[in-house]
Design brief:
The complex is a heterotrimer.
Chain A lengths: L20 H12 L4 H15 L4 E2 L5 H10 L22 E5 L7 H10 L5 E5 H6 L21 E3 L6 H16 L10 H23 L1
Chain B lengths: L4 E3 L2 H14 L4 E9 L5 E8 L6 E8 L6 E3 L8 H12 L2 E3 L40 E7 L5 E7 L6 E5 L11 E7 L2 E8 L7 H6 L3 H8 L7 H16 L5 H29 L3 H22 L8 E2 L2 E2 L7 H24 L2 H7 L7 H6 L4 H5 L7 H4 L20 H23 L20 E9 L2 E9 L7 E5 L3 H5 L1 H5 L4 H11 L3 H5 L1
Helix pairs in contact in B: 4-5, 5-6, 6-7, 6-13, 6-16, 7-8, 8-13, 13-16
Chain C lengths: L4 H14 L2 H38 L15 H10 L11 H20 L15 H9 L1 H12 L3 H32 L4 H11 L2 H4 L1 H18 L11 H4 L9 H25 L13 H9 L2 H20 L7 H28 L6
The chains are: A alpha/beta, B alpha+beta, C mainly alpha.
Chain lengths: 212, 521, 360
């Protein structure tokens, strides 16, 4: 029996979302491995909690960050969805909205910020520059797409995207979160890859310290 | 305007500059532009202006030595030259003699090569480095010995006993990715060191490979709160170079848009200022008004932040029929709400004490540091480009240049608040009599600037924004340089914050209102 | 007025009827513990929700409205998320102290929380030096904050913790002195006795008139500072120190700080209600017997919560209106203005009590 069903988002019908295919593929994959009634119910509860309490980190490098501010302000008010508590410390954030161009100088800093965040953590790439380098593809100092260094969950194109587009991206992320397994494996294979990378790095640092 | 450039030999440079500063009172170094003229060598263009007489002067110097180019530093004459010369060193590898701090400022310290040189082929030597960025605590100073040989010595920037706090690159109050290294003594700031370039996208270099109409897209992304004004500057620069006249209707529209953009920018300034000093509710007040403005922007050209509106010889779209009505409504609306900003923030005794007498910059310092815009005018310097070098319709308009004498955070804050009202006055003067006419003057599809150097400045939301173009007659520029209005503001942080409290560092930074992508370009 | 002692004595006698006294007391302790924890959690959730909604209305926004009806389930979602979030262990930190710090803060707020008289006869910790106990245990929180800053081995938390230490210790003085004023007026340090007197002779803020009102105002300022809330939120000043002393905390450890912050706000409001606004004592007008009997019919704990939440609302109002103080201004305010003022206030109150100038 397929226990993990289609994720619902308040006041937007399922059909109105674009990209239902990849989501359904993920659901199928999860169901194919077999599911446990108790675990799935617990998962649902936890996923409900997590997806409704996405605390974004204050991270913005350029233009898109202003639209993020506009999103927090009165007309768009992201508090309605529970995205209210923007944390300035990466340790307490669930989500990093990469708003704006990432340059070669910024890339290691961003990676470090991402590593400092506590699991589970999500990445949304906002705007053309973050997705692919945008108008700066000819530049010698711009990272062509933040997905080269971080596992991105949702892409929101635009230059800059409107706050509504931010919401759409956040809701897509919510949908993705709602079909996650807390007990057992996590959906994102690439995230595991990053974890092993991080562990290897940590080991290396510890070794270095021991030698020194 | 077309620049008339005088050439000076590098050996005579420092003495001549000192003479100009002292005798001709050239106290404002507008620009210091690194250049690569190929066979002519590497060089620097200095743009000087006298705040007393209004006279301008452009000087260039060049050295043919490409391996170890040395030019005398002028950082002892103008304080702002300090950071400009570091920029030139970073991009062109020109070493400035007697400059106390020759470190890279935009690029990583382990960067190989100098990217803006024409023959720079180091792209493959500079892949993405994911290792932590090296930040050296010492620096090199090059100086000429008594017998003429060039020597170097080590200067210590950050001593081992200093408690250095990194404000940024990711910090809620740097309004982007500025990195300030602040040495603290308890809560008191001893000094600030800037590390820039976290959003350095190489726009100047990219522009060299783009045609003129293509270049336009990038100016909006420099200082996104002055998107209109920046693009206005570039369009005007090109139009004047190719002798293209724009219709009065375009002039009207551009002027109105510039002023509306200024209001939107100052709205954001107020929001950031209040947020940085902890008044979280006030943040929402101006954002509410800015949204009204955004709605007008959106209806007229689709963008909320990045407008892409001005084109060479005109504007992209005509304004909507109800534009005038809506702007007038907005003007009334904003005037009616204005007292709220005073009530909730500046009327408060805490805010007053946080701002008055904090972060003072003297008039002489402001000029020497090149702080233009509302921040410079807070130090009593009449530097409004709209008055100094009028462009568009500003010579026909009645408006006040808002100047205060105190030079503290409070003065900077109130300058911006008053400028919002003044901008409304300008808009009100224009909005009812926008003449009919073309929105686009006919021009050849391929734009080629005649050989020469061109410079055009506008008063952007945070000071003088200038576009410098050197053309060799091709369809793309030989060298483009943007005079960042924010770089001097960020550079002034050190002067303004010494001896102040750490919390004031944030408040002063907010009152300077710099935009990082504009600094880093 | 309903006296809760009847319930507790009846329950005690019921238990001692079937089991030895030590077991009965043990069971009662467990029940009380459970009661505190549940109340603590519920109040935290209510307060967080209230704060979000109230600040939204101050800021021309709507506030949470998607999760559950009117967004009431928002905080539950946050708690669930926080519970399942990773707690990051840093190699550079002092692990033991780092892990202990949130519990210090939590314990301090629990202990102060237990001192509050909820209703007539419904007090958990109530003895003859209650006010003194309250002040002393509230001081434990400072240790937690200082430890958090120190053990994080990071610069921002360190600055935050140092600010916090200076701030909390300074403002504790004012709190102590305002409480002294009340103690002078009521002649007792027992909190239940203070409330009982107010029920008998009228609320302290009316009874003690000028010095009491002054003390109430000083208490509001100092109490706000004790809670680390705006305009005194320097230790966690977001725009300066990212997240202040709890920058390096994640998951539930951060959650404890977050909870304690809100509960301290409530405790501050509750203590103001207890010592100035009559605690559970209803609002009486002398002579209007019909009105008074209606007022007396409302249970005491309703009165208590209404008053406490009124003060909490005042504090939220202040927080969302005022800009933040600077550290030197903060200390100036305490040592140069509030401290001398509260000292004078004590003398004033002593005179008032001595010459019998109290109202009633």
């Amino acid at each position: 029996m397929a226990l993990i069903g289609k994720p619902k988002i308040k006041s937007i019908p399922y059909e109105e979302f674009k990209d239902n295919e990849s989501l359904e593929k993920m659901i199928d994959e999860l169901n194919a491995h077999g599911t446990n009634v108790i675990v799935t119910t617990a998962d649902k509860l936890i996923n409900w909690g997590r997806s409704n309490s996405l605390w974004p980190m204050n991270f913005g490098t350029s233009c898109c960050a202003i639209e993020l501010m506009a999103m927090g302000a009165a007309r768009f008010d992201m508090a309605r969805f529970g995205f209210e508590v923007t944390r300035t410390s990466p340790r307490q954030a669930d989500l990093i909205l990469v708003c704006g161009t990432i340059t070669y100088k910024m890339a290691p800093v961003l990676k470090r910020l991402y590593d400092q965040m506590a699991d589970p953590k999500y990445v949304i790439a906002i705007g053309g520059c973050t997705i692919s380098g945008g108008p700066f593809t000819k530049s010698y100092h711009v990272l062509m797409g933040v997905d080269k260094i971080l596992p991105v969950d949702v892409y929101v194109p635009g230059c800059p995207p409107r706050p509504e587009a931010f919401y759409y991206g956040m809701m897509q992320l919510q949908r993705k979160m709602k079909i996650e397994n807390f007990f057992g494996t996590v959906n994102h294979k690439d995230k595991d890859l990053h974890k092993t990378e991080a562990k290897a790095l940590e080991k290396k640092i510890i070794n270095q310290e021991e030698q020194a | 305007m077309t620049l008339d450039i005088q050439t000076i030999e590098p050996s005579a440079l420092h003495a001549e500059m000192l003479r100009l500063r002292q005798e001709k009172k050239m106290d404002f170094l507008v620009n210091l532009i690194g250049m690569d003229w190929g066979e002519e060598g590497l060089g620097v263009i200095y743009m000087l202006e006298s705040t007393e007489t209004g006279e301008t002067l452009t000087i260039k110097t060049a050295t043919t030595d490409r391996q170890t180019p040395y030019i005398d530093s002028v950082s002892d004459i103008w304080q702002i030259a300090n950071i400009y010369e570091r920029e030139v060193y970073d991009f062109y590898g020109i070493r400035f003699l007697n400059h106390p701090d020759m470190r890279r400022i935009f690029l990583r310290e382990d960067w190989v090569g100098y990217p803006l040189r024409k023959d720079d082929k180091t792209a493959e030597e500079n892949p993405l480095r994911m290792t932590d960025e090296p930040l050296s605590d010492t620096t090199t100073e090059y100086y000429r010995d008594a017998d003429g040989t060039i020597k170097e010595k080590k200067n210590v920037v950050w001593g081992p006993d200093e408690y250095v706090v990194n404000v940024g690159p990711q910090h809620p109050s740097t309004h982007g990715v500025l990195h300030m290294r602040a040495s603290l003594d308890g809560e008191t700031v001893k000094k600030i060191g800037l590390v820039l370039g976290y959003i350095h996208r190489g726009i100047e270099k990219i522009s060299e490979s783009l045609t003129y109409p293509q270049m336009l897209a990038l100016t909006d992304r420099l200082d996104y709160f002055s998107a209109m004004q920046n693009r206005h500057a570039l369009c005007m620069c090109i139009e004047k170079a190719i002798g293209l006249e724009v219709s009065p209707r375009v002039q009207y529209i551009r002027t109105i848009m510039d002023e509306l953009q200024r209001i939107a920018s100052h709205c954001i300034y107020y929001a950031c200022m209040t947020m940085d000093t902890g008044a979280l509710t006030a943040f929402f007040y101006t954002f509410r008004e800015r949204e009204e403005l955004c709605k007008i922007f959106e209806d007229n050209f689709g963008g909320r932040l990045i407008m892409n509106y001005n084109t060479i010889g005109g504007v992209m779209y005509d304004i909507q029929p109800d534009f005038a009505k809506r702007v007038k409504e907005f003007s009334k609306h904003l005037r009616a709400r204005f007292h709220e900003y005073q009530d909730i923030y500046t009327g408060n005794v805490i805010a007053e004490q946080r701002m008055k007498g904090v972060g003072c910059i003297s008039n002489a310092d402001a000029i020497s540091l090149g702080i233009t815009g509302p921040a410079g005018r807070a130090s009593g310097w009449h530097n409004d480009v709209r008055k100094r070098h009028p462009y568009a319709l500003y010579d026909q308009l009645k408006f006040r240049e808002i100047v205060r004498e105190e030079g503290d955070t409070n003065a900077r804050h109130w300058n911006r608040m008053d400028e919002m009202l003044e901008s409304l006055n300008i808009v009100d003067q224009l909005i009812d009599n926008i003449p009919a006419g073309d929105i686009q003057t006919k021009r050849k599809p391929i734009v080629k600037l005649p050989e020469g150097d061109y410079y055009q400045a506008v008063e952007s939301s945070r000071g003088e924004f200038g576009v410098f173009i050197e053309s060799k007659g091709d369809k793309s520029p030989y060298r483009v340089h943007y005079r960042s209005s924010s770089l001097p503001l960020a550079n002034a942080m050190d002067t303004a914050t010494r001896g102040q409290k750490f919390a004031d560092l944030i408040a002063i930074g907010a009152s300077m209102d710099f935009v990082i992508p504009d600094i880093d370009r | 007025m309903f006296d809760f002692t009847t319930v507790s004595t009846w329950f005690h006698s019921l238990l001692t009827g079937v089991m030895p006294e030590w077991l009965a007391i043990g069971i009662e302790c467990l029940i009380v513990l459970l009661f505190i924890i549940i109340l603590y959690a519920t109040l935290a959730i209510i307060l967080i929700y209230a704060e979000r909604k109230i600040c939204a209305f101050f800021q021309c926004r709507i506030g949470p409205n998607r999760v559950g009806k009117w967004g009431v389930l928002q905080v539950f979602a946050d708690v669930l998320k926080m519970l399942t979030k990773e707690i990051i262990k840093m190699r550079q930190s002092d692990r033991l102290l780092h892990d202990m710090a949130p519990y210090f803060v939590l314990v301090a707020s629990f202990l102060t929380f237990s001192c509050i008289p909820w209703n007539k006869g419904l007090e958990i910790l109530d003895f003859n030096v209650g006010a003194f106990f309250f002040i002393s245990v509230s001081g434990i929180g400072v240790i937690g904050i200082l430890l958090a800053g120190w053990a994080s081995h990071s610069k921002y938390p360190m600055i935050g913790a140092m600010r916090s230490g200076a701030q909390l210790i300074s403002y504790e003085l004012s709190i102590g002195m305002t409480m002294l004023v009340v103690i002078l007026l009521n002649g007792s340090m027992q909190l239940s006795e203070i409330v009982q007197q107010q029920a008998d002779y009228g609320w302290n803020i009316v009874r003690g008139h000028v010095p009491a009102v002054l003390a109430f105002l000083i208490y509001l300022v100092a109490g706000n500072a004790e809670c680390n809330r705006g305009p005194f939120d320097l230790p966690e000043a977001e725009s300066e120190l990212t997240a202040g002393y709890h920058t390096e905390y994640s998951g539930m450890h951060f959650g404890f700080f977050y909870l304690a912050e809100y509960l301290n706000l409530f405790i501050c409001g509750a203590m103001a209600a207890t010592i100035f606004l009559g605690g559970w004592a209803p609002f009486y007008i002398q002579g209007a017997d019909g009105f008074n009997s209606v007022m007396a019919a409302i249970p005491g704990f309703v009165w208590f919560f209404a008053k406490a939440f009124f003060v909490v609302f005042l504090l939220m109002w202040i927080r969302w209106t005022f800009p933040r103080l600077r550290i030197d201004q903060l200390l100036t305010l305490e040592w140069k203005y509030l401290m001398p003022l509260s000292m004078i206030n004590i003398v004033l109150m002593a005179l008032v009590v001595c010459f019998g100038l109290t109202i009633n």
